[in-house]
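Entry for the shared binder. Reason: the reviewer on the internal report wants the predicted structure included alongside the sequence.
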Amino acid sequence: MRILAVADIESEYFYDFYSPGKLDGIDLIIGCGDLSEEYLEFLVTMAGCPLVYVHGNHDSSFKRKPEGCVCIDNTVFKYNGIRILGIDGSHRYKNGKYMYTERQMKRKIFRLLPKIMRYRGFDILVTHAPARHVNDFDSMSHRGFECFTKLLRRFRPKYFLHGHIHRNYGACIPQKSKFGDTTVINAFNYCIFDI
């Protein structure tokens, strides 16, 4: 299965300079937050495949649910045998609908455990914020969650997709890296991969 992961900015390649065929062969699109409703609707329409997404810290401006898209915040979504766990938001650095303290995020994960256990784990973890010490920064606005790191260690998913850390913040921010057996993908702008 070929997956397109997107986050944080509307990619000019797929949006402003779109031409027929650019999304051919994509089987699933995963949005990792901070994208407009219009962009998500455009992608799902042009690709003709399912699009699932989580909310980012700037998505409180959503006026409606994007048509044709499935929000997977705080749930396990199964598609073609692939189990996808979605968790929205970032660290709380100011008041915001999709911003959480470490303690609040830990409680969200605790409430998700019955679903995770029912599905016997998950293959892909989709979040907006990164995990602590995995592509994050020390500043509160871009710090990863320690409870995400623990989730990765416990369930060892095949992939961890996140956004929030814009790759233009610095020259050494990788798009792909490893955390144990998990391939970590920073979906800023876009990334295509096969599973």
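Summary line for the report: The CA atoms of residues 7 and 188 lie 5 Å apart.
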